[in-house]
Automatic annotation (TrEMBL):
One of its GO terms (molecular function) is glutathione transferase activity. This is Glutathione S-transferase. Is involved in the conjugation of reduced glutathione to a wide number of exogenous and endogenous hydrophobic electrophiles. PROSITE patterns: GST_NTER.
Length: 153
């Protein structure tokens, strides 16, 4: 499912970390037996298979990759409080921001206007709160200096 933002999130992470992988496309209208086998609960993509073992849910996959391939860049800080804060904002982007973004793209008229307003409200919330997580200011992002929240965003 080439257009899946969740799949792209995992591909982007693998590419930033320099990990070679084989990409297998899934037809979500006609799901394969492999998808049923590797993600029997949700039957969704992405699924990352490492040494025959499947991992599902993009944010969980991202953390797994970061903890397994400890090469730079590290996506999450060691500090448990900072880590918890970043996890919270990643799931906010992943769920709340993404949900309204999809609504903007798929609605019309009044519903679209409402969705656009909601989208900007959520982005503004993130923009204000992010300053508490990064009091030192937003830094330039490049391949060596990128965090979990950057990737999610
Ligand atoms: N929370 C999941 C969402 C994954 C997801 O919704 N994948 C969609 C493609 S964008 C899917 O596989 N949909 C198939 C279905 O719902 O049957 C994640 O972050 O990995």
């Amino acid at each position: 499912m080439w257009a899946s933002p969740f799949v792209r999130l995992v591909k982007l992470t693998l590419e930033i970390k320099g990990i070679q992988y084989e990409y297998v496309e899934e037809d979500l209208v006609n799901k394969s037996l492999v998808l049923h086998k590797y993600n029997p609960v949700h039957k969704k993509v992405p699924v990352l298979v490492v040494n025959g073992k499947p991992l599902v849910e993009s944010l969980i996959i991202l953390e797994y990759i970061d903890e397994t391939w400890k090469n730079s860049p590290r996506f999450l800080p060691e500090n448990p409080y900072k880590k918890a804060q970043l996890r919270f904002w990643c799931s906010f982007v992943h769920e709340q921001v993404f949900e309204t973004m999809m609504l903007v793209l798929t609605s019309n008229g009044e519903e679209e206007e409402k969705a656009v307003k909601e989208f900007f409200e959520r982005i503004s919330t993130l923009e204000v709160e992010i300053k508490n997580i990064f009091p030192e200011g937003i830094q330039v992002i490049d391949q060596k200096n990128v965090g979990l929240l950057d990737v999610c965003f």
